[in-house]
Design a protein that fits this description.
single chain, about 110 residues, alpha+beta, six-stranded antiparallel β-barrel, about 35% helix, extended
Length: about 110
């Protein structure tokens, strides 16, 4: 048991987790955090394979977990899986790609104007 902030009511249990292409997997649950997305952890493990990490969780509330890093810690949130059809997902990613392309074109045009 690990006492976070010295408070007994915030007693956390350390669990072995794996960073995979699906997210941070811990005992059947999947978590994510902003740092993992920003640094593209879930893409990088496509080349390296899953990476084992220590993950701290409150057994009474598994919606959040804590990943301790050499520079601090990162709060992770549990990801809920949805039953979105593959057609809807494909449409979403097509629209997202269009938005990205429009943004990049706009950014390039602004640079040319300066």
């Amino acid at each position: 048991m690990f006492l976070f902030g010295g408070c007994a009511e915030l007693a956390l249990q350390m669990k072995k987790a794996f960073i995979t292409t699906n997210g941070i997997e811990v005992e059947g649950n999947v978590y994510t955090c902003s740092l993992a997305i920003k640094e593209q952890w879930f893409i990088k493990v496509m080349d390296t394979g899953p990476v084992e990490v220590d993950f701290f969780i409150d057994p009474g509330n598994q919606n959040k977990g804590i990943l301790f890093l050499s520079v601090g810690y990162e709060v992770c949130l549990r990801v809920e899986h949805s039953n979105i059809s593959s057609e809807v997902q494909e449409e979403y990613f097509e629209q997202l790609e269009k938005v990205k392309n429009a943004f990049n074109r706009n950014k390039k045009n602004k640079l040319k104007d300066n």
